[in-house]
Amino acid sequence: MVCFLTGLILAVRCARGSKHDFKILKESRLEINTDAQIKTDKGFIGIKELFPDSEVPHKSSKHHPLTQEQKQFNRQLARERIIIEHRNRECKIFRICNERYRGKHKNYEKTWKLVSAIVNLKLSTRHLKFASP
Q1: Could you give the residue ranges of the DSSP H alpha helices within the chain?
Q2: What is the pTM of this model?
């Protein structure tokens, strides 16, 4: 979970084995404010039942192509969600996803939280490298 205003990672949830992100969200019972803006990708299509104000891109099919307004909505949502994808990239630099995790399974979520804390620290101190001494 990423804050759209600051770009900081707010929460990390993990599960054992290969499990879809939406299933992890449902099982984690994460307390999310009802006033929060939730913007997801197409993998979270059923989130409207949990959070009615959430924004999910429209899905097209062969028989039902998207209208111009739906395409514009998807484009605008993608522009706003790019912050999340940038945070994912910065976390993946640590190669915790690419390779087999060789630590204890009980420490996997702790490792992810540590990586997200490092990414948050890097983001919050980014302006300091341009400061004059």
Answers
A1: 21-28, 47-50, 68-92, 108-124
A2: 0.71
